[in-house]
Specification:
This protein is about 35% helix and about 25% strand. The chain contains ten helices and ten strands. The strands form two sheets. A six-stranded mixed beta sheet has the order 6-7-8-3-9-10, with helices on both faces. It starts with a strand and ends with a helix.
Length: about 240
């Protein structure tokens, strides 16, 4: 069953077409990777899904409901959550405090939950990403990989129906990258994810299905084996050496 269905989506900035009649489906429970060269329009498409960018034409349905006319906060309330290339959180707050804020944004329960920050309300999400031992540390003091993990904990606290991950491995060293891939793999089946990533090893490890975006157009969708074998994909993105 398709949780997210994009039909003939178009977006341009003047003469520059960044999304060119894109049709894409993300099935419930899968990790669907969106790959393509720099400038292909991947981040723009993510922004169109979340509502940060308005479509010029086409439609987006989420859970069967048309959402492309809804503002960002209403799509978020429906369960569309995004994790950014640069982690977004309050650096002066503790890790637990940031997770509590994510829960407040979802439940609108305000200070009664805030007072419990770092206790049973937030620790399950920090434990899920391996940060329970640093729950009370200021977020600014966390390493880059830990900050990525914290943003995932915040996303999970928001109870996403679809988690949009924009290059979660960007800037991570080999050890942190391995931990992030293992973490995302452990979430397979628990969360539906649309993953934008340049690390093809991670993509082929994690993705149930892959779509390839080149110059604003989807040129192929399929399993990792199908994408590896697709001559158009090899010529346009993967290269003959892969």
């Amino acid at each position: 069953m398709s949780l997210l269905a994009i039909r003939e989506a178009r977006k341009s900035f003047g003469a520059l077409i960044v999304t060119d009649s894109v049709t894409l489906e993300v099935r419930e429970g899968e990790i669907h990777a969106l790959i393509g060269p720099n400038g292909a329009g991947k981040s723009c498409l993510i922004g169109e899904i979340t509502g940060e960018l308005a479509l010029d034409a086409g439609e987006i349905r989420f859970g069967g409901e048309r959402v492309d006319r809804l503002p960002v906060h209403e799509r978020a309330q429906l369960g569309l959550k995004r994790a950014y290339q640069v982690p977004q959180f309050f650096s002066s707050f503790s890790a637990a405090g940031n997770v509590a804020l994510a829960q407040i944004a979802r439940t609108r329960t305000a200070w009664s939950l805030w007072r419990k920050a770092g206790t049973e309300e937030t620790l399950p999400f920090l434990r899920q990403v391996g940060l329970d031992a640093v729950a009370e540390r200021p977020s600014a003091s966390l390493g880059h990989g830990e900050k990525r993990q914290l943003e995932l904990a915040m996303a999970f606290a928001g109870e996403p129906k679809l988690l949009l991950l924009d290059e979660p491995l960007a800037g991570l060293g080999p050890g942190d990258s391995e931990r992030m891939v293992s973490l995302l793999a452990s979430m397979k089946g628990r969360y539906t994810m649309l993953l934008v990533e340049h690390d093809m090893g991670a993509v082929f490890t994690l993705a149930d299905r892959i779509s390839v975006l080149v110059a604003g157009r989807i040129i192929a969708s399929g399993s990792a084996a199908e994408i590896r074998a697709n001559p158009e994909v090899r010529a346009a993105y993967l290269g003959e050496g892969h």
